[in-house]
Fold:
Amino acid sequence: MLISITVTQSQKVINRFNNYKFNINILTSVLSFLMKCPFCQSEQLIVSNTRSTNGGVEIWRRRLCLSCNGKITTHEKIDLSYVLVIKRSQKNAKYNRAKLFSGIYQAVADTKNLDRGTAGIMAEKILVETEKEIVIRKIKQITSTEILFLVASILKKTSFDSYLRYISYFAKNTELKSYL
Structure:
């Protein structure tokens, strides 16, 4: 039995098989290391539908198990843990999404007439934009001050109150003049 599958660009491992017809055994052996079915633990999963979400930062996939016909949905994000953040004290740390989100959320949550849910959504959007910019720059190291500038520039466009709160908390007194 032959099956025709178009593989998306984000799956680099099986990219070379685009637009070909395969025997299912060959196809499933290629896909076997990617994921197991949560229902039957089979390794015979194929991607039946793929969409880009969150402005191209996340990929949504619908997968089909060839053994039990179960359908699952996965969300794939870019992992920025390879990015090294150089702090003001010259110590290095891995990029931590939760830390950055926390700082942005604190600045956004104190805005008047904004409930916590809306503040969380707004903080997530700002975080996604910041991460997009880091990915676009194709860098492996970034200083905490550069991250501060990125977030501040995005906050300045979206919410000036949050922008002022963010820089007043995170920027040192000597740096404040360059932000204003």
Q: What stands out?
A: The helical segments are 24-31, 97-109, 116-137, 144-158, 160-170, 173-179. Residues 58 and 77 are 5 Å apart (CA to CA).
